[in-house]
Amino acid sequence: MDVPEFQEVYELYFKDVYKYVLALCRDEHMAEVIRFRPLR
Questions:
Q1: From CA 22, how far away is CA 5, in angstroms rounded?
Q2: Which of these, 3, 30, 32, lies nearest to 15 by C-alpha position?
Q3: Could you report how far apart the first and last alpha carbons of the chain are, in Å?
Q4: Which of 2, 14, 30, 31 lies at 20 to 30 Å from 20 by C-alpha?
Q5: pTM beyond cutoff 0.70
């Protein structure tokens, strides 16, 4: 079983992640900031 590359996973889910974050914070600018913030 091949493990997908990070870029593939990002491209597949980034819209969903953005929508989820936007629903939580209700601020488009902050949703963009959070979406692009690297995980630790």
A1: 25
A2: 32
A3: 26
A4: 2
A5: no
Q: Which residues are within 8 A (CB) of 9 and not within 5 positions of it... i.e. 6 or more apart?
A: none
Distance CA 5, CA 1 (A): 13
Q: Write out pLDDT tens, residues 1-40.
A: 687 788 888 889 889 988 998 999 999 999 888 877 766 6
**Cα separation, 26 vs 20, whole angstroms:** 10
- Dist CA 34 CA 38 (whole Å): 8
Contact between residue 21 and residue 34 where contact means Cβ atoms under 8 Å apart: yes
